[in-house]
Amino acid sequence: MKIERLNVGWFTAPGGIFRKGDDLDQTVRFPIPAYVIETATERIMVDTGLNPKAITDPGAYYERPELFAMLALEQEQSLVEQVDVATLTKVVLTHLHWDHVGGLQLIPTSVPVVIQRSEWQAGQDDAAVQRNLFIPSDYAENGREVILIDGDFDLLGDGSVELLLTPGHTPGHQSVRIGGLVLGADVSHYASGLDDHRFPVFAADHEQQGRSADRLRAMRDAGVDVVPGHDPEILRPGPVMARS
Ligand SMILES: [Zn+2]
Predict the structure, then answer these.
(1) 230 CA to middle of ligand 1, Å?
(2) Distance between CA atoms of 173 and 97, rounded to whole angstroms?
(3) Bridge partners (DSSP) listed for residue 74
(4) Rg over CA atoms, the chain
(5) What is the tens place of the pLDDT at every residue in 13-50?
(6) 31 CA to middle of ligand 1, Å?
(7) C-alpha to C-alpha distances, 75 to 11, 26, 240, nearest whole angstrom
(8) How far is the CA of 33 from the centre of ligand 1 (A)?
(9) Which of 80, 90, 72 is nearest to 6 (CA)?
């Protein structure tokens, strides 16, 4: 089992939007990670980063100027420059935000997506799309198989990769456990969020997010490495070790 972290972009924004209580006048450059999990028979992509076409002027590209008024995007290398996407066997989406699904259309439609049913359904519902700041064009139906799951899920049937339902940041957010490693995704942008619950100011349900953070914190306290979603101090590209 090999796990590799890629950098698939950056967003720069007022820190106080993404960690409650931080300064709104101070911007922070947040890394956007994606992961490739390799087993003997599978190459699983976890999240897909930014849509390269949206980088220069996301407000205009998505026709959502209000959403990107305080955000700047950057990308050094897109997904396809870092992974041979033709060799992927599955894409796991932790949730439907634009910094996680933007690269989906760069992956051949023969590669199925695995996502929580509650997240996918929210992504098809106009009111939920608005409330959760989703941009449906990045994950629009294009013939790709979408495998919908309900709750925790043993992805390969052998216990090696488990998807954990960790809702709150979005309605059906999920994390990924690989042995002694958990990719927490946006349960908390910062590692410290598992303890202090200083989440982004927006969420589908902050209380539920707090309970998901408590769940991951308990795993961390039991010796599991829990990787945060966008912590600038932690998320450097390269191999990630999973404790066995
Ligand atoms: Zn994110």
Answers:
(1) 7
(2) 10
(3) 10
(4) 16
(5) 999 999 999 999 999 999 999 999 999 999 999 999 99
(6) 9
(7) 9, 21, 21
(8) 9
(9) 80
Ligand 1: centre distance to CA 40 (Å): 29
- DSSP, residue by residue, 68-107: TTT-EEE-SS-GGGTS-GGG--EEE-S---HHHHTTGGGS
8 A C-beta contact, residue 201 and residue 241 = no
Span from the CA of 122 to the centroid of ligand 1 (angstroms):
17
Q: Determine the distance from the C-alpha atom of residue 194 to the mean position of all C-alpha atoms in its chain, rounded to a whole number.
A: 16
* Residues paired with residue 156 on neighbouring β-strands, in sequence order: none
Average pLDDT of the residues in 103-129: 97
The pTM (predicted TM-score) of the whole model is 0.96
Distance 151 CA to ligand 1 centre (A): 20
Cα-to-centroid distance, 19 and ligand 1 (Å): 13
